[in-house]
């Protein structure tokens, strides 16, 4: 099979600087207009500008010591390490730069001399020049892919950073047990109590597909709900969940209204879980449950010193521009969800004075921080809430999570159906990435909330609109 020639659009490099090394043994071609666009996008402190500067560093390393003749012949790319054995003799790919003017005539249907049209013209010229090779244009821009398809060019999206082929395959955090589960697993079962908690050790065919801290339940009316604590060769250890639907187990006055909320509260209140992800549509209670659990563990149990809440500042509509004030004051417009839920959670009796005293106490233990200043920080004994996490890239998510010091718990909230960041999709979001990567870790938990509990109006709007 002949090596393919991939022409990279600028947005692919801006999205993933390491894409240069992800095309296996195939070749890469960079049009000169792409290098011009990279040069225009390198200034600033945004994530895109940092990615552009990283691409420039990679290209500089590849060209180090190369002369004009070597550049014309294509520079050898490093052999990829993911999934490649050390003794693999597969030929290495090359990266080609546009070193000469490629004669091409754009059709009348593409007037003007825009960068996109120049890249399309380059792709058409290369297809004519390399008739014995498959020439593919790779772009994250939907309009670019549409125009390329209209011209008869082979075009693809950049899928290498895609976590899953289908978002429906994403780990849900729970599993329903079959009705005959206990009949098939009752031969070697042990049960015991420890510090008021009930444990079972079970073995059998079904436990092989369980993950640590996954919830297992039965729909037979018994109300059986448990969380997997260990999975090993000798069986699995499961622990009965605390029923936070009961008022006697209320968390900061909040009780769970459905099974998924009960699972979420069990994970949020478990100090052994350092990382929890909650997925769900609007109104499922993600922020309210997380804040209630945080206030209880900060103010009542003193497990954490304070709550830190942050989110990526991606506007849904037009940007409101620069904001005056301190870091917290600048972040306030983005924290409407925090303020709305605090109003629900702070309803002290005692009139205005009691409310003011409670508000002061809570505000002294809640900090609002911007993601823009997270690099280089270390958080000790903090309860960190990352709201709207679906708008982060995998790289941004890694930057935040690696800030956690000893005794810190991170909770990521989001709805992968509402992504506002350009070029991110449900399968490439940083939230999807961490849910998939942390599902085998014994100190991480995940649950997808299904039922909306906001109001009958909100529930009907979610279904009908």
Description:
The chain is α/β, with parallel strands linked by helices and 465 residues long. The protein has three domains: 152 residues, 5'-nuclease (Rossmann fold, 3-Layer(aba) Sandwich), CATH 3.40.50; 73 residues, no CATH class; 206 residues, P-loop containing nucleotide triphosphate hydrolases (Rossmann fold), CATH 3.40.50. Helices cover 31% and strands 18% of the residues. The strands form three sheets. The protein has a six-stranded mixed sheet with strand order 3-4-2-1-5-6. A hairpin with a 2-residue loop joins strand 11 and strand 12. The longest helix has 17 residues. The protein is elongated. The two termini are 49 Å apart.
């Amino acid at each position: 099979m002949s090596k393919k020639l991939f022409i990279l659009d600028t947005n692919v490099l801006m999205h993933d600087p390491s894409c240069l090394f992800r095309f296996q043994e195939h070749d890469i071609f960079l049009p000169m207009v792409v290098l011009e666009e990279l040069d225009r996008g390198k200034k600033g402190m945004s994530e895109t500008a940092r990615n552009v500067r990283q691409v420039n560093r990679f290209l500089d390393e590849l060209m180090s010591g190369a002369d004009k003749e070597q550049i014309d012949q294509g520079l050898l790319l490093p052999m990829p390490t993911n999934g490649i054995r050390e003794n693999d003799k597969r030929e290495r790919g090359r990266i080609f730069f546009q070193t000469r003017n490629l004669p091409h005539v754009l059709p009348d249907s593409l007037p003007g001399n825009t960068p996109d049209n120049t890249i399309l013209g380059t792709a058409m010229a290369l297809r004519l020049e390399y008739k014995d090779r498959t020439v593919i244009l790779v772009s994250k821009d939907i309009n670019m892919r549409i125009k390329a398809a209209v011209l008869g060019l082979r075009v693809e999206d950049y899928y290498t950073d895609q976590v899953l082929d289908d978002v429906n395959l994403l780990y849900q955090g729970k599993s329903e047990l079959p009705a005959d589960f206990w009949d098939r697993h009752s031969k070697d079962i042990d049960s015991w109590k420890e510090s008021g908690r009930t444990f079972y050790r079970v073995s059998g065919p079904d436990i092989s597909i369980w993950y640590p801290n996954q919830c297992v339940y039965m729909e037979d009316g018994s109300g059986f709900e448990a969380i997997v604590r260990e999975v090993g060769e000798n069986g699995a250890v499961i622990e009965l969940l605390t029923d936070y639907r009961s008022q006697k187990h209320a968390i900061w006055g909040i009780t769970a209204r459905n099974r998924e909320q009960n699972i979420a509260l069990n994970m949020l209140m478990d100090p052994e879980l350092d990382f929890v992800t909650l997925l769900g549509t609007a109104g499922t209670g993600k922020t309210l449950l997380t804040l209630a659990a945080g206030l209880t563990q900060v103010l009542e149990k003193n497990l954490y010193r304070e709550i830190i809440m942050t989110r990526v500042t991606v506007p849904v509509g037009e940007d409101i521009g620069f904001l005056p004030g301190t870091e917290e004051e600048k972040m306030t417009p983005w924290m409407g969800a925090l303020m709305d839920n605090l109003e629900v959670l702070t309803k002290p009796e005692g009139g205005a004075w009691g409310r003011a005293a409670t508000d002061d106490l809570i505000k002294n233990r809640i900090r609002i921080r911007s993601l823009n200043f997270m690099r280089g920080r270390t958080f000790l004994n903090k309860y960190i809430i990352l709201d709207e996490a679906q708008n982060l890239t995998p790289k941004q998510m890694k930057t935040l999570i690696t800030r956690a010091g000893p005794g810190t718990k991170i909770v990521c909230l989001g709805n992968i159906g509402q992504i506002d960041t350009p070029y991110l999709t449900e399968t490439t979001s940083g939230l999807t990435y961490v849910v998939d990567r942390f599902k085998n870790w014994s100190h991480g938990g995940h649950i997808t909330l299904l039922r909306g509990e906001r109001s009958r109006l909100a529930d009907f709007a979610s279904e009908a609109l």
